[in-house]
Amino acid sequence: MIEFENVTKVLGNRAVLDAISFRIEKGETFVIVGSSGMGKSVTLKHMVRLMRPDEGTVRVGDQVISEASGTRLEEIRDRFGYLFQGGALLAWLTVTENVALPLREKTRMPNEAILEKVHKTLQLVGLDQDGEKRPSEISGGMQKRAGLARAIIRDPAIVLYDEPTSGLDPVTSRTIAALIDNMRKQLGVTSVVVTHDLPRALSIGSR
Prior knowledge:
Layout: E1 2-11, E2 14-24, E3 29-33, H1 40-47, E4 55-60, E5 63-64, H2 70-77, E6 80-83, H3 95-106, H4 111-124, H5 140-152, E7 158-162, H6 170-187, E8 190-195, H7 198-204
Parallel strand pairs: 3-8, 6-7, 7-8
Antiparallel strand pairs: 1-2, 1-4, 4-5
Helix pairs in contact: 3-4, 3-5, 4-5
Protein backbone atom coordinates (compact mmCIF):
# COMPACT_ATOMS: atom_id res chain seq x y z
CA MET A 1 0.00 0.00 0.00
CA ILE A 2 2.84 2.42 0.89
CA GLU A 3 6.36 1.83 -0.37
CA PHE A 4 9.61 3.72 0.14
CA GLU A 5 12.39 2.84 -2.29
CA ASN A 6 15.88 4.18 -1.50
CA VAL A 7 14.49 7.43 -0.10
CA THR A 8 17.05 10.04 0.97
CA LYS A 9 16.31 13.43 2.51
CA VAL A 10 19.05 15.85 3.55
CA LEU A 11 18.21 18.62 6.02
CA GLY A 12 20.85 21.01 7.35
CA ASN A 13 23.70 19.06 5.71
CA ARG A 14 22.56 15.85 7.44
CA ALA A 15 20.96 12.86 5.76
CA VAL A 16 17.88 12.52 7.99
CA LEU A 17 16.66 9.72 5.72
CA ASP A 18 19.51 7.75 4.19
CA ALA A 19 18.39 5.47 1.33
CA ILE A 20 15.59 3.86 3.35
CA SER A 21 13.34 1.22 1.83
CA PHE A 22 10.27 -0.49 3.31
CA ARG A 23 6.74 -1.50 2.40
CA ILE A 24 3.57 -1.11 4.48
CA GLU A 25 0.84 -3.62 3.68
CA LYS A 26 -2.89 -2.94 3.61
CA GLY A 27 -4.61 -3.30 6.98
CA GLU A 28 -1.54 -3.44 9.21
CA THR A 29 -0.47 -1.09 11.98
CA PHE A 30 3.11 -0.18 11.09
CA VAL A 31 5.05 1.55 13.88
CA ILE A 32 8.15 3.68 13.39
CA VAL A 33 10.10 3.98 16.65
CA GLY A 34 13.01 6.25 17.49
CA SER A 35 14.23 9.16 19.57
CA SER A 36 13.53 12.79 18.77
CA GLY A 37 15.16 14.23 15.66
CA MET A 38 15.83 10.90 13.99
CA GLY A 39 13.47 11.42 11.04
CA LYS A 40 10.21 9.78 12.12
CA SER A 41 7.96 12.75 11.37
CA VAL A 42 9.96 13.48 8.21
CA THR A 43 9.07 9.97 7.05
CA LEU A 44 5.37 10.60 7.65
CA LYS A 45 5.51 13.88 5.73
CA HIS A 46 6.95 12.07 2.71
CA MET A 47 3.93 9.73 2.69
CA VAL A 48 1.57 12.63 1.94
CA ARG A 49 4.17 14.64 0.04
CA LEU A 50 4.42 17.46 2.54
CA MET A 51 8.10 16.79 1.77
CA ARG A 52 9.73 15.41 -1.37
CA PRO A 53 12.72 13.07 -1.30
CA ASP A 54 16.06 14.30 -2.63
CA GLU A 55 16.50 10.80 -4.02
CA GLY A 56 14.27 7.75 -4.28
CA THR A 57 10.57 7.10 -4.72
CA VAL A 58 7.47 7.01 -2.50
CA ARG A 59 4.45 5.05 -3.76
CA VAL A 60 0.90 4.88 -2.44
CA GLY A 61 -0.80 1.94 -4.10
CA ASP A 62 0.16 2.13 -7.76
CA GLN A 63 0.68 5.92 -7.64
CA VAL A 64 4.07 7.63 -7.24
CA ILE A 65 3.10 10.34 -4.75
CA SER A 66 6.63 11.74 -4.60
CA GLU A 67 6.19 12.92 -8.19
CA ALA A 68 2.46 13.76 -8.12
CA SER A 69 1.06 17.27 -8.30
CA GLY A 70 -2.21 19.13 -8.79
CA THR A 71 -5.40 17.11 -8.94
CA ARG A 72 -3.61 13.76 -8.90
CA LEU A 73 -1.80 14.68 -5.67
CA GLU A 74 -5.07 15.75 -4.03
CA GLU A 75 -6.72 12.49 -5.05
CA ILE A 76 -3.92 10.47 -3.43
CA ARG A 77 -3.99 12.63 -0.29
CA ASP A 78 -7.73 12.04 0.02
CA ARG A 79 -6.90 8.44 0.94
CA PHE A 80 -5.20 9.64 4.14
CA GLY A 81 -6.23 10.86 7.57
CA TYR A 82 -3.52 12.61 9.62
CA LEU A 83 -3.44 12.95 13.41
CA PHE A 84 -0.95 15.72 14.15
CA GLN A 85 1.17 15.63 17.28
CA GLY A 86 -0.67 18.48 19.01
CA GLY A 87 -4.15 17.64 17.72
CA ALA A 88 -4.10 20.82 15.57
CA LEU A 89 -7.66 21.82 16.45
CA LEU A 90 -8.90 25.29 15.54
CA ALA A 91 -9.36 27.15 18.82
CA TRP A 92 -12.34 29.25 17.67
CA LEU A 93 -14.41 26.23 16.59
CA THR A 94 -16.25 23.73 18.79
CA VAL A 95 -15.24 20.07 18.79
CA THR A 96 -18.17 19.30 16.49
CA GLU A 97 -17.18 22.09 14.09
CA ASN A 98 -13.55 20.93 14.06
CA VAL A 99 -14.50 17.36 13.26
CA ALA A 100 -17.02 18.47 10.60
CA LEU A 101 -14.47 20.66 8.81
CA PRO A 102 -13.17 18.03 6.31
CA LEU A 103 -16.73 17.15 5.31
CA ARG A 104 -17.65 20.81 4.79
CA GLU A 105 -14.51 21.51 2.77
CA LYS A 106 -14.32 18.32 0.70
CA THR A 107 -17.90 17.10 0.22
CA ARG A 108 -21.35 18.37 -0.68
CA MET A 109 -23.11 16.50 2.11
CA PRO A 110 -26.17 18.31 3.53
CA ASN A 111 -25.77 19.77 7.01
CA GLU A 112 -28.02 17.19 8.67
CA ALA A 113 -25.97 14.31 7.23
CA ILE A 114 -22.72 15.98 8.30
CA LEU A 115 -23.92 16.38 11.89
CA GLU A 116 -25.09 12.76 12.00
CA LYS A 117 -21.71 11.55 10.72
CA VAL A 118 -19.85 13.75 13.22
CA HIS A 119 -21.97 12.46 16.11
CA LYS A 120 -21.27 8.82 15.19
CA THR A 121 -17.55 9.52 14.88
CA LEU A 122 -17.44 11.34 18.22
CA GLN A 123 -19.19 8.33 19.77
CA LEU A 124 -16.42 6.13 18.39
CA VAL A 125 -13.77 8.15 20.24
CA GLY A 126 -15.88 8.71 23.37
CA LEU A 127 -16.56 12.42 22.89
CA ASP A 128 -20.24 12.45 21.93
CA GLN A 129 -21.07 14.46 25.08
CA ASP A 130 -18.40 17.11 24.39
CA GLY A 131 -19.22 18.30 20.88
CA GLU A 132 -20.22 21.83 21.87
CA LYS A 133 -17.05 22.50 23.86
CA ARG A 134 -14.08 24.39 22.45
CA PRO A 135 -10.56 22.92 22.53
CA SER A 136 -9.59 25.10 25.50
CA GLU A 137 -12.40 23.53 27.51
CA ILE A 138 -11.23 19.92 27.15
CA SER A 139 -8.11 18.04 28.27
CA GLY A 140 -5.08 17.28 26.13
CA GLY A 141 -6.15 13.66 25.79
CA MET A 142 -9.62 14.72 24.67
CA GLN A 143 -8.05 17.07 22.13
CA LYS A 144 -6.07 14.11 20.74
CA ARG A 145 -9.29 12.09 20.47
CA ALA A 146 -11.03 15.00 18.73
CA GLY A 147 -8.11 15.22 16.32
CA LEU A 148 -8.46 11.50 15.67
CA ALA A 149 -12.18 11.91 14.99
CA ARG A 150 -11.39 14.61 12.44
CA ALA A 151 -8.71 12.41 10.86
CA ILE A 152 -11.12 9.51 10.27
CA ILE A 153 -14.34 11.43 9.53
CA ARG A 154 -14.04 10.79 5.77
CA ASP A 155 -13.30 7.08 6.22
CA PRO A 156 -9.71 7.19 4.96
CA ALA A 157 -7.94 4.02 3.87
CA ILE A 158 -4.76 5.10 5.69
CA VAL A 159 -4.34 7.01 8.97
CA LEU A 160 -1.02 8.56 9.99
CA TYR A 161 -0.36 9.21 13.69
CA ASP A 162 2.46 11.56 14.72
CA GLU A 163 3.39 10.87 18.39
CA PRO A 164 -0.25 10.15 19.34
CA THR A 165 0.53 9.52 23.03
CA SER A 166 3.18 12.20 23.55
CA GLY A 167 2.64 14.30 26.69
CA LEU A 168 -0.31 12.23 27.91
CA ASP A 169 -0.72 10.52 31.27
CA PRO A 170 -0.52 6.68 31.26
CA VAL A 171 -4.29 6.15 31.43
CA THR A 172 -5.02 8.53 28.54
CA SER A 173 -2.10 7.07 26.60
CA ARG A 174 -3.63 3.60 26.89
CA THR A 175 -6.99 4.99 25.76
CA ILE A 176 -5.47 6.50 22.61
CA ALA A 177 -3.57 3.28 21.90
CA ALA A 178 -6.80 1.29 22.23
CA LEU A 179 -8.54 3.65 19.81
CA ILE A 180 -5.77 3.18 17.24
CA ASP A 181 -6.11 -0.60 17.57
CA ASN A 182 -9.89 -0.31 17.17
CA MET A 183 -9.41 1.65 13.93
CA ARG A 184 -7.68 -1.39 12.50
CA LYS A 185 -10.10 -3.97 13.92
CA GLN A 186 -13.39 -2.12 13.29
CA LEU A 187 -12.63 -0.10 10.17
CA GLY A 188 -9.83 -2.12 8.57
CA VAL A 189 -7.67 0.95 8.03
CA THR A 190 -3.94 0.87 7.45
CA SER A 191 -2.23 2.74 10.29
CA VAL A 192 1.24 4.25 10.45
CA VAL A 193 2.27 5.30 13.95
CA VAL A 194 5.34 7.40 14.79
CA THR A 195 6.40 7.22 18.44
CA HIS A 196 9.31 7.20 20.86
CA ASP A 197 7.20 5.18 23.34
CA LEU A 198 8.49 1.61 22.90
CA PRO A 199 6.01 -0.13 25.27
CA ARG A 200 3.09 1.55 23.49
CA ALA A 201 4.57 0.65 20.10
CA LEU A 202 4.74 -2.99 21.09
CA SER A 203 1.14 -2.95 22.35
CA ILE A 204 -0.46 -1.50 19.21
CA GLY A 205 1.84 -2.36 16.32
CA SER A 206 1.37 -5.36 14.08
CA ARG A 207 4.86 -4.59 12.73
